[in-house]
Amino acid sequence: MKKIVFIWALSFLFIWNGSLLCAADDNWRDDFDRICAQTGSAGKLSKEELSSLIAESDGLLKIIKSSDDPEEKIYLIRLKKCRNFFIFMQGIAKSSEDN
Q1: Is the distance from CB of 59 to CB of 22 less than 8 angstroms?
Q2: CB-based contacts of 48: which residues, under 8 Å, 6+ apart?
Q3: Any residues with CB less than 8 A from the CB of 93 and at least 6 apart, and which?
Q4: Nearest one of 94, 60, 99 to 80, comparing CA atoms
Q5: What is the pLDDT of residue 92?
Q6: Is the pLDDT of residue 8 over 90?
Q7: Residue 42: which domain range?
Q8: How far apart are CA 87 and CA 53, in angstroms?
Q9: pLDDT of residue 99
């Protein structure tokens, strides 16, 4: 039962965050700053928090990719690096649980 509630809550969070990111097209830099600021504390985050940041990064990547501004393309590269780091840390968390 706990797993079902957790999966439902996590799904709701992803959907809700995705719609917020799409609605807040002008505030994508605030979202970028908030997401990438978490890389410094990624080792202390839970797998669920890392999953949430990865999902938020995916939503923000779609917004930035739709832009034609070359300056925003730089942020695209930086956001991909943050996202990949969260995936890396998530893998470390999973492997440490297996041991």
Answers
A1: yes
A2: 6, 10
A3: 46, 47, 50
A4: 60
A5: 92
A6: no
A7: 2-98
A8: 9
A9: 66
Domain total of the chain? 1
Q: Which two tokens stand for residue 35?
A: 């997401």
Which phi and psi (to 5°) does residue 67 adopt?
-85, 155
CATH number, domain containing residue 54: 1.20.58
| Calpha distance 88→42 (Å, rounded) | 10
For 11, 15, 58, 76, 94, the CA distances from 48, given in Å and listed in that order, are 11, 15, 15, 23, 11
pLDDT per position as a tens digit, 38-60: 999 999 999 999 999 999 999 99
pTM (predicted TM-score): 0.70
Query: For position 27, what pLDDT does the model report?
Result: 85
Q: What is the DSSP string of the chain?
A: -HHHHHHHHHHHHHHHHHHHHHHTGGGHHHHHHHHHGGGGGGGGS-HHHHHHHHHHHHHHHHHHHT---HHHHHHHHHHHHHHHHHHHHHHHHHHHHH-
